[in-house]
Each structure stands twice: as structure tokens, then as C-alpha cells.
Design a protein that fits this description.
The protein has 207 residues and is of the alpha+beta class. It folds into two domains: 74 residues, Glutaredoxin (3-Layer(aba) Sandwich), CATH 3.40.30.10; 116 residues, Glutathione S-transferase Yfyf (Class Pi), Chain A, domain 2 (Up-down Bundle), CATH 1.20.1050. Helix content is 50%, strand content 6%. It has eight helices and four strands. A four-stranded mixed β-sheet has the order 2-1-3-4. The longest helix is centred in the middle third of the chain and has 27 residues. Glutathione binds next to loops.
């Protein structure tokens, strides 16, 4: 199998965490592609959206987006703890919530990086910022729902927080005092989680 990804893509990171935590990574060739460059013919041929992550199977069939890829990878496992049947909907809901956090972060990052200041929409930036804040507050009070056995919910949350750290670090601090962490439970969990080999092997970075 081939996985198209980039080193700044949080959705790709979630999939790469999944392959490592499930030990499927040895079956997957990872190929870096910049989805914003004109040089992505190989990707567009298999995914008309031209988005990453995209997983190409041995028979040439391509899978996207990241939840679909994770569901497929999970189906390859005899016994999966990453999407356990006993917590199936909860894990998928956590994935949807934390992917939504990433969507809002991604939208703000793209708006700020690709449009001149006078063309940016303060209204949309404010809407996405509120979504991020509300979701982080929600997670801060429900972190104990994630038990100690790692699932896709943990991988998805770690990817979302790492992307906030990369693109919108100020969202993780109190607006009235930017030196104080606004979500101490999330950040303490994340500081511990990010020492896992899978996290160290997939750190987000600009090339
Ligand atoms: N919901 C999708 C989002 C994928 C996505 O937006 N990926 C970004 C990179 S992080 C991308 O490929 N953007 C290129 C584009 O939108 O043209 C998923 O979970 O895989």
C-alpha cells in the first residue's frame, strides 16, 4: 500500500499514528506530496480532490479521507483495540469532534497564510476561533472519557493538538494572559502522550 501525506498535515498524522500503533506501518510505503503545489499529478490521478491523506491499495484502489482510511486499516486487524467494538460510536464521535477542531484550525491557518490581511474575513476567523475554544473547553471537562487503552480517539486528539501547536499556538493559552495554559488537563495529557514512539516518528514540521 502507498500513503500520500505531508509533514504538516494533521489528518495524515492521524493515519500515520494509526499505522504505527497498529504495527501496519511495515506494509505501507509513505510518499510525501505537497497538496498545494502544481506538482501533484500522481496524487490527482488517484484522488480527484487532490487531498491528503490518500491511501492506495495493492489493487490500485484509492481510499480517502482520513476516517475512511482508518476504518479500512482497522478492518485489516484481527483484533483491534484502536476502534474497539465496545466503544465504536464513542471513538468515532471523538474522531469527528477532534477532526472538526483541526478543520477550524486549518481554515484559520489557510485564511491567514493565503490572503492579504485586507481580504481576510474577521467574521469567519472569529467563528472558527469560537469553535476551537468551545471544543477545547468541552474536551477539557471530558478527558476522563478517554481511558488508558489507546484508541483512534487519542490519536485524533493528539493530531489536533499538535496542529494547534504548530499553526495557532495562541489558542492554547489564556487570552488575558498568554503565558498561562488555558487547558491544563489537555496539555498535561498531551505532554505525556507526545513521548510515544509513534508521536516522535510523525512530528509535524514545515519542510
Ligand atoms: N477531511 C479530510 C481533510 C483532508 C485535507 O483537507 N487535507 C489537506 C491537507 S492537511 C489537503 O490536502 N488540502 C489540499 C486542498 O484542500 O486542496 C481528511 O480527514 O482526510
Amino acid at each position: 500500500m502507498k500513503l500520500y501525506y505531508s509533514t504538516t498535515s494533521p489528518y495524515s498524522r492521524k493515519v500515520r499514528l494509526f499505522t504505527r500503533e497498529s504495527k501496519l506501518d511495515s506494509q505501507i510505503e509513505e510518499i510525501i506530496v505537497n497538496p498545494f503545489s502544481d506538482d501533484k499529478d500522481e496524487l490527482v490521478q488517484v484522488n480527484p480532490l487532490g487531498k491528503i491523506p490518500t491511501l492506495v491499495l495493492a489493487n490500485g484502489k484509492a481510499l480517502y479521507d482520513s476516517p475512511v482510511i482508518c476504518a479500512y486499516l482497522n478492518s485489516l486487524l484481527d483484533h483491534s483495540n484502536l476502534i474497539p467494538t465496545t466503544q465504536y460510536l464513542d471513538v468515532l464521535r471523538w474522531q469527528a469532534m477532534t477532526d472538526g477542531l483541526t478543520d477550524a484550525t486549518y481554515n484559520i491557518a489557510i485564511e491567514r497564510r493565503t490572503r492579504p490581511k485586507e481580504e481576510q474575513s474577521p467574521k469567519w476567523i472569529s467563528n472558527w476561533s469560537t469553535e476551537i475554544q468551545r471544543t477545547l473547553e468541552h474536551i477539557e471537562t471530558r478527558l476522563e472519557e478517554l481511558d488508558s487503552d489507546i484508541t483512534l480517539a487519542h490519536l485524533s486528539l493528539a493530531s489536533a493538538v499538535s496542529y494547534l501547536e504548530l499553526r495557532l499556538p495562541e489558542a492554547l493559552y489564556k487570552s488575558e494572559n498568554p503565558k498561562v495554559i488555558a487547558y491544563p488537563k489537555i496539555m498535561s495529557w498531551y505532554e505525556n502522550f507526545k513521548t510515544r514512539p509513534s508521536m516522535l516518528d510523525t512530528q509535524l514540521h514545515d519542510l
